[in-house]
Amino acid sequence: MSDADAPVLRMESVRKTFGDSVVLRDVDLEVAPHTVTALIGASGSGKSTLLRCANLLEEIDDGAIWLDGEEITDPRADQDAVRRRIGVVFQAYNLFPHMTVLENITLAPRRVHGVARAEAEEHARELLERLGLDGKADEYPDRLSGGQQQRVAIVRALAVRPRLLLLDEITAALDPELVGEVLNVVRDLKADGMTMMLATHEMGFAREVADQVCFLDSGVVLERGTAEQIFGDPQQERTQRFLKRIVEAGRL
After folding, report:
1. What is the pTM of this model?
2. How far apart, in whole angstroms, are the C-alpha atoms of residue 154 and residue 66?
3. What is the mean pLDDT of the segment spanning 39-60?
4. H-helix or E-strand containing 30?
5. pLDDT attached to residue 9
6. Strands ordered across the beta sheet of 212-217
7. Distance (Å, whole) CA 6 – CA 74
């Protein structure tokens, strides 16, 4: 395998517990460059915890995680340096209310990455225009709609030029009419070749954009495959039951 084809992210036998509760059980997972991996499953199946472990926001109890071939769960690894290479967008926008949109976006590039203010602002304005937010740079978050705030959160994650983008249920807090505008951004990022791993309840969207789909059940990756295989011909009974309920609810 050439370096160009090597996984951006690799998890091997990852285990995570909270007290007596096992949240992730021996998870093996690879995310190839320029692909989208969708994590699906019921609430509480471990999707969000898996993303948090990938970004070292949660410390794993066993196993190992590699980013571009470097074992980032090695105690000697520089966790801050690792996080600088990974962008994260959560359900809640987590924008600083006392900062303008431009200030929110340029904070990490300037303070963490040492980018000059002019360069950081130029890149931020380019991203805002690309995501349909030109004219919003000097607004404060409370002046924006939920969909606009979530797009700003995505711009903020992209502003550090991440190697990997993690998206955790980014439409969960949005009104239904705003979901589409955020999902369109993810479609555009996929077209640009951004490597992404996302947890989502938007099954139709996952089926459309994902190169790999992983179905989690009680902290186990019970089934994985292409979107066509998982949604069209799931092999595990538990996956079949989950998707049957999704179809019956009109969400697929």
Report:
1. 0.92
2. 24
3. 95
4. strand 21-31
5. 98
6. 86-89, 164-168, 196-199, 36-40, 212-217, 220-225
7. 19
Q: What pLDDT, on the 0 to 100 scale, is given for residue 94?
A: 86
Angle at 108 between CA 132 and CA 127, to 5 degrees: 20
Residue 74: inside a domain: yes
- Give the range of the structural domain holding residue 203, as residue numbers without chain letter: 9-248
Binned at pLDDT 50, 70 and 90, residue 246 comes out as confident
Angle formed by the axes of helices 176-191 and 146-158, nearest 10°: 20
Q: What is the pLDDT of residues 154-164, one digit of tens each?
A: 999 999 999 99
Q: What angle do CA 129, 130, 133 make, to 5 degrees?
A: 45
For position 75, which CATH number holds?
Answer: 3.40.50.300
Q: Is residue 116 part of a domain?
A: yes
CA angle in degrees (0–180, nearest 5) for 197-199-201: 140
